């Protein structure tokens, strides 16, 4: 990510002192220093923090600020054309995936915050006029499960659900591409749009 992209995504650093001012739980500001403001519908509904250390703490790579509700909020569900007949969104798992696409100029990509599409999340999209959903979950076992579960949720709401997948490719370090953030490290925004299409 460039400095400009980091600013556009509103990513930040949180220190121990700053974490104390918001009465954040243990670990924020020490183990978890990358802050991600969670936005949906033009408002901030909470904060998520990521570790940037090589060793992930026992709690995992991410923690949410106490009181953050992710159950009925699709991350980045803003600026989406809602009145057209083909109003659609692309659903990814992680906020950084959606943010990386956004700062690269790709609109309409939202995140579930690390899970599948639930009835509550889909209802939030339907309430904004969305008619079609394309799933682009991580290319791993969890992502495959999320796809199956999310298709069932979409069908229960009678909405068109499409699935896009990443090609069998590797990053320069030899690891397989498995999410949007990694895909955009080696591909252009136009190539991501084409993959989604």
Could you characterize the architecture of this molecule?
There is one protein chain. The protein has helices spanning 3-8, 16-21, 95-103, 119-127, 141-156, 180-186, 189-196; strands at residues 12-13, 32-40, 43-51, 62-64, 88-92, 109-111, 132-135, 160-163. A four-stranded antiparallel sheet has the order 1-2-3-4, with no helix packed on it. Strands 6-5-7-8 form a four-stranded parallel sheet. A hairpin with a 2-residue loop joins β2 (32-40) and β3. Helix content is 31%, strand content 20%. By secondary structure, the chain is α/β, with parallel strands linked by helices. The protein is globular and about 50 Å long. α3 (95-103) packs parallel to α6.
Please trace the helix and strand order, writing H or E for each element. Answer: HEHEEEEHEHEHEHH
Task: Bin the strand percentage.
Answer: 15-25%
Structural category: alpha/beta
Number of H/I helices? 7
Helix content: 25-40%
Distance between the termini: 25 Å
Radius of gyration: 17 Å
């Amino acid at each position: 990510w460039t400095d400009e992209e980091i600013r556009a995504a509103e990513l930040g650093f949180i220190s121990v002192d700053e974490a104390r001012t918001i009465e954040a739980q243990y670990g924020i500001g020490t183990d978890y220093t990358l802050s991600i403001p969670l936005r949906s519908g033009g408002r901030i509904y909470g904060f998520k923090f990521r570790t940037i250390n090589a060793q992930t703490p026992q709690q995992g790579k991410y923690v949410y600020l106490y009181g953050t509700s992710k159950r009925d909020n699709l991350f980045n569900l803003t600026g989406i054309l809602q009145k057209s007949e083909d109003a659609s969104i692309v659903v990814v798992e992680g906020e950084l995936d959606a943010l990386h696409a956004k700062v690269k100029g790709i609109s309409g990509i939202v995140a579930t915050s690390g899970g599948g599409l639930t009835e509550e999340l889909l209802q939030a999209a339907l309430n904004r006029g969305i008619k079609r959903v394309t799933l682009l979950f991580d290319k791993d076992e969890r992502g495959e499960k999320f796809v199956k579960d999310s298709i069932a949720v979409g069908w229960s709401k009678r909405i068109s659900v499409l699935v896009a997948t990443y090609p069998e490719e590797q990053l320069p370090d030899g690891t397989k591409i498995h999410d949007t953030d990694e895909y955009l490290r080696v591909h252009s925004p136009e190539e991501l749009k084409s993959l989604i299409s």
